[in-house]
Fold this protein.
Amino acid sequence: MIGGLFIYNHKGEVLISRVYRDDIGRNAVDAFRVNVIHARQQVRSPVTNIARTSFFHVKRSNIWLAAVTKQNVNAAMVFEFLYKMCDVMTAYFGKISEENIKNNFVLIYELLDEILDFGYPQNSETGALKTFITQQGIKSQHHTKEEQSQITSQVTGQIGWRREGIKYRRNELFLDVLESVNLLMSPQGQVLSAHVSGRVVMKSYLSGMPECKFGMNDKIVIDKQGKGGTTDDSGKSELGGSGKQSIAIDDCTFHQCVRLSKFDSERSISFIPPDGEYELMRYRTTKDIILPFRVIPLVREVGRTKLEVKVVIKSNFKPSLLAQKIEVRIPTPLNTSGVQVICMKGKAKYKASENAIVWKIKRMAGMKESQISAEIELLPTNDKKKWARPPISMNFEVPFAPSGLKVRYLKVFEPKLNYSDHDVIKWVRYIGRSGIYETRC
Amino acid sequence: MPAVSKGDGMRGLAVFISDIRNCKSKEAEIKRINKELANIRSKFKGDKALDGYSKKKYVCKLLFIFLLGHDIDFGHMEAVNLLSSNKYTEKQIGYLFISVLVNSNSELIRLINNAIKNDLSSRNPTFMCLALHCIANVGSREMAEAFAGEIPRILVAGDTMDSVKQSAALCLLRLYKTSPDLVLMGEWTSRVVHLLNDQHMGVVTAAISLITCLSQKNPDEFKTCVSLAVSRLSRIVSSASTDLQDYTYYFVPAPWLSCKLLRLLQCYPPPEDGAVKGRLVECLETILNKAQEPPKSKKVQHSNAKNAILFEAISLIIHYDSEPNLLVRACNQLGQFLQHRETNLRYLALESMCTLASSEFSHEAVKTHIETVINALKTERDVSVRQRAADLLYAMCDRSNAKQIVAEMLSYLETADYSIREEMVLKVAILAEKYAVDYSWYVDTILNLIRIAGDYVSEEVWYRVIQIVINRDDVQGYAAKTVFEALQAPACHENMVKVGGYILGEFGNLIAGDPRSSPLVQFNLLHSKFHLCSVPTRALLLSAYIKFINLFPETKSTIQEVLRSDSQIRNSDVELQQRAVEYLKLSSIASTDVLATVLEEMPPFPERESSILAKLKKKKGPGAVSNHLLKTRKACLTDIKGISTPSPSADLLGLRAGPPVTAAAPSAGSLLVDVFSEAGVNDDGFLRFVCKNNGVLFENQLLQIGIKSEYRQNLGRMYLFYGNKTSVQFVTFTTTLNVQAKPVEPLIEGGAQVQQVINIECLTDFSDAPLLNIKFRYGGALQNLTLKLPVTINKFFQPTEMASHDFFQRWKQLSLPQQEAQKIFKANHAMDTEVLKAKLLGLGMALLENVDPNPENFVCAGVIQTKAQQVGSLLRLEPNAQAQMYRLTVRSSKDTVSKRLCELLAEQF
């Protein structure tokens, strides 16, 4: 189990130090700083063993979070906890930065006391935590005795993530499908590897204890229904133009509120949602990915001192949709002495400090193409080493799910209160972002 | 190099450096550098030519980036361009870049070499210096190839500036060190030597470094420098401190030059020319005198400079080793430094004295400082100084003060620093051995050594003590007693156990008489350490145990039990297991007779050089040990393992050889060498056969006669083996016996052996042995030999077992005075129960246990079988350990037999 938890700034100064077990001494703090933060060579492994003590760390911008233990713990559990910790902190005070941490000193210790007990992770559900750990300080004392006992029963009860008696005038529900698409493509346009990792994030403002059911175009479910003969036409019509009926999900994980037994038996996702924002599920797909952009590079070496680069990008989605925040990064050789760029659309610039040409386009509709050409002058060097030609990478944001995932329905039942599924206002949004989206040249 | 002058500072460079320094993170630094590199690349690529200033600035930036640890793969061309600039600062930066980032690109090298050549041939001294510095800094083989011919010319040219000459000399030295084959002095030699006469002291100083290096390689060519150096030295030494102006350092005239001159002189033997020598001696005397003068300044630099010259002068005096006067003076002056409060001076004084101690002239003078040195060893805070003090003690040790020095070193050893302990131990061991007057002192010292610093006592040290104990009869008893006592300490070092095991195994009998160290006590003591020891030591202890069985039969059952225990006989270590099994078998199967031969005492080791010394030499490297030791002991440097291969028995303790080999006597020839007497003396040889049947009867340079015999009742058969030890054949070889014998082959080929069988029947009792006469021709000369055949009455004994009361009954029956023969005699050999038993058994009678009320005494019974009659005999042997006397009583039914037996036996114990 976790023996202690430390938070450092980028200089290696300790901001937060909480020790849960006696086998972790104060010198562990220094050991991590000396051996990881200030290490001569960058430490790439997230797990470091120093003198029979294991350090698990994650880095958020300039902040290091390190969990320490002397026991043989489940590393995945520790990392899950650290990520949860980050989420909780973000939910409380926004961005994790040195200043924010310093300002919320007491709060963080309070949180740490709550979500870790003698090194064992406890309830780390933000919604539940917010009911009894608040930032308002004295104001929060207004809780009546009843409320306090309610909190206790809720936190320790079966549905620890939702308290009873929530009331909204407008029952509203937001559903975001967030995906990041990763790609490695050969210069000839052959896909070497591609996968999408997605998340379904939900924001629910629902009264009472509603029972929800979430449906998507999961291949297994669709196939089963097809066999059963009960066709769900409404679902099919919703799918629209992409022509793809269902997707194969490689693996997925759910929020703790989802009833896993039901998912296992019927493959249906039913749950009582927490109040506010949370991540309902995560998934990964590797088949039939819609690649929003195609990068076609053309690199020609003219003698030893010149390089001609031409890059064409093609958008590959419905013309009605608009991609945003497009950025293409074309690496340049290390002996570049000058660059001339011509591009039809957007802005392109040679960034010497990053050894790359960065081409930015604000917006681009589907089924279009754009082109950049650059002349790179090279300085002859004594080195016979050939340029390694790193891949061209790309960033973008598109308003659809590259995996092809569609939300078929999200039904809400609340038997006790009198509102039906139709009274709930539901919003669905798809955002596809680039992960590591690279094309070799 | 002159600093970059003001107004010529490069602002861009300063800004860049401060940017880098202000970077918050490594990433930021890398970004900044990438940006700068791109900027420089674009500038270098740019069409318009850069002016010298910007080129210099960018090259500087590149240099800085390189020094930050980034690879630089361009800019060399620009740097080479800078070389051809006429501005000093630009040229300087160009050279700096080239010497730091030299590139083996052949085209560039050509350009660089060209630029350097131009500078060398320019008349501008600063440019020439820059070029020379660059050559020296790069110092590569290519550089040497290109310029090795040029530089000597510059060095000796008449019109070269002094500063250039200095640089040229040092540059040449550097090239000579990297590639001596390319720097050929030849015709320049004499002119280079004459640089010693140069007006400019700087040039002389630089040149002398070069000359010293060159003359070390080929002293003969540079022989002429000696007289020049002496005259130069005398000029400096005799000059007043103001004469040399710039080259006077804190009132000392040209200290560096003086030191270098003195060092150069150390490359050569004392000058033969009387005048030169006289002048040199005068110089040295002046230096010694000057050192005695009161200091002209309190500054530390003044005394440093003065002392530097003094120590160098002393080194020279020691090197010459021919001026007793100077040597003694040097010694006295060093003596003053021994108590100086400067640690460095004390160190240097001790170091120099070490070398002085080895000179015959000053050895006595050094010895007077013994108290101070011992004090230094005890009180000095710095371990390196203590080490030097220990070295010096070692060097000044001789017979007169050995005891004191060894005692001091031993007592110091207890507190000595760990880093010097091993060396100290070796030194103590060597001194103890070398100057040992009585060997008990030696044994004491070494055992003490093991006790105090067991961890640091190397194998060689304890091998050596065993060698010495084995070779010296007089210390064996003492050694056994001492190790026995040492082993009684609750915690004793493994090396002590090894020595103890070996010595008790060999000589435990010598102290067995004392009830406090009775065999069982000895065994238990050794065995109590057994489990704490490493495998090799255990193996050694097992060998010691089997020797115990031989020495003390009463321990046999205990030891067998130990051997039989699972931890031995099933030990996971093969060596231990094998030993346990073989020793167990050996002890249970072999008769006492065989056991006694197999486990005989180790023969003396051949005298040879102490291997400890070799080890010390190896440790310190030759030359570190004082010279006279090297001289006297050079012969023995041969093998370092020395002691581990001392005799044909492979290694001293047989740790590596199989167990039976360990126990066996050293060589096949002497496999059955006697237990009793020293050498096979002609007709006394037969006395050895009273108690045994097999062995070598006679041996000289030509012939060896071995005997194998067996007896049964009144019959016997004897095989005689005549071995030809030479490579020539023996002709007409005949033997005649006063008894009948089968004829023997008349010819014995060189190296061959012939056998002769003799059958013997005992008709009646006898007292004279048959005579064997051997005649043969060896190389024409007739050899005649008469030997007593070892056939004695006791050979026909039939052992008779009987109980106590039977024995006494018979004893009383044979009470007639003529039936008894008694003799009281002094012990010829050690009174070892085991050996006695073995001998008595060899006699052929039955050794009766538990018969005599006194366990020390031995009683035997047997019947002599002759054709005529049987003669019953009883024997009683009473040893008296205190007086080293025996009383032997023999009673038999026939008076002649009693007498004869008594005579025979009396000479055996």
